[in-house]
């Protein structure tokens, strides 16, 4: 198992949510019937720490709709695992703020889709105002806050408007990621197409004047001339999909995937009610799509790309959901001209 060290995890502790957003990849809204119990979650936290995981992004649904979320977070932070809680910011209360501090979370990330009309259209009226107030309240209370935006056809062209608002709030980072056509987004036919090159230009245009870290997630790219500055940290180039290599995803009933964005049953490597995390992680047959990847697996427009050996075809999840199950060709790659030819 040399070379496969678990560093981070995305853990969906419940599907319960005050929204059921039209583009939600996990189809949040109602809790699953058989979500992990408190004791099971506490044991998962122990297993993550024992396996060497050092960072967990905790998601839902909405994390705060699970009554025992503080116990789960504390079970991680008490073992020196850094935790970021990702929220829609709609139900931020003084009690939640107090609990976040007491649990020792590293940061809180609030999902913001775009300007008010864009954000509210996919959630509900007033949700944008609540998210903005949550950001101001979180930062005012000394908790590091960031913003995550899932880009689609409707909001990718309005980044400048949102930027003008966010730069007035003392957040520490803004991450742009591609919305994937899975879950509700697929069911509702949400148009997820956008110009990756245009988004990259937006980021590079604002890197010098942005009062916070500004970058793109690993499902946008790759290896344009601006690559060394796009990942939110200097020199942070993309080195291939980390699913099953350095990261995992865990859903609310204990299914383990290489990435929680690989929201399809065929990517389930095991369930924590029947197998330990260590057993799943160290199984030589787990995460084969990445652990056994060869450059020869690249196909389509990625096949002859000169940096294919570096990016390994980009984000497996995004590839799968946008390219009819093809894991090894990325249709959003910014190295492609509009005619589909590689830029050499």
Write the layout of secondary structure elements.
Layout (H helix, E strand, L loop, with lengths): L7 E5 L25 H13 L4 E5 L9 H9 L4 E6 L6 H10 L3 E5 L4 H7 L4 H14 L4 E7 L7 H8 L6 E6 L5 H4 L8 H11 L6 E4 L30 E4 L4 E3 L12 E2 L5 H6 L5 H4 L16 H4 L4 H7 L22
Parallel strand pairs: 1-2, 1-8, 2-3, 3-4, 4-5, 5-6, 6-7
Antiparallel strand pairs: 8-9, 9-10
Helix pairs in contact: 1-2, 2-3
Describe this structure in words.
- There is one protein chain.
- 28% of the residues lie in helices and 14% in strands.
- It is α/β, with parallel strands linked by helices and 344 residues long.
- Helix 3 (94-103) links the parallel strand 3 and strand 4.
- It is globular, with a radius of gyration of 19 Å.
- The chain starts with 7 loop residues before the first strand and ends in a 22-residue tail after the last helix.
- 46% of the residues are buried.
